[in-house]
Write a structure and sequence with these properties.
The structure is a single chain. The chain is about 30% helix and about 25% strand. The protein is globular, with a radius of gyration of 12 Å. The chain is α+β, with helices and mostly antiparallel strands. The model has no long low-confidence stretch (mean pLDDT about 95). A three-stranded antiparallel β-sheet has the order 1-3-2, with no helix packed on it.
Length: about 70
């Protein structure tokens, strides 16, 4: 969940990790907040790095990495 005016910085980080990102879902929560769900694949270390980078963006209010073991 992030403030809408933070989307440029989020997009920049996503482009730097495009090899790991499979898909994104963007939702307008209200006039000021957006939510984005990002489906990713790859090595856990890289995915944790992506999550940390997104969490560090000032306009990001909440970020969480959910990991599923490979089946």
């Amino acid at each position: 969940v992030y403030e809408e005016d933070g989307s440029d910085e989020i997009t920049s980080v996503e482009h730097q990790h495009e090899a790991s990102i499979i898909s994104t879902l963007h939702v307008h929560v209200n006039e000021k907040l957006c939510m984005e769900a990002i489906a990713v694949k790859g090595k856990r270390r890289e995915l944790e790095r992506l999550a940390r980078r997104l969490s560090a963006i000032n306009k990001v209010k909440k970020a969480k990495l959910l990991v599923s073991l490979e089946v």
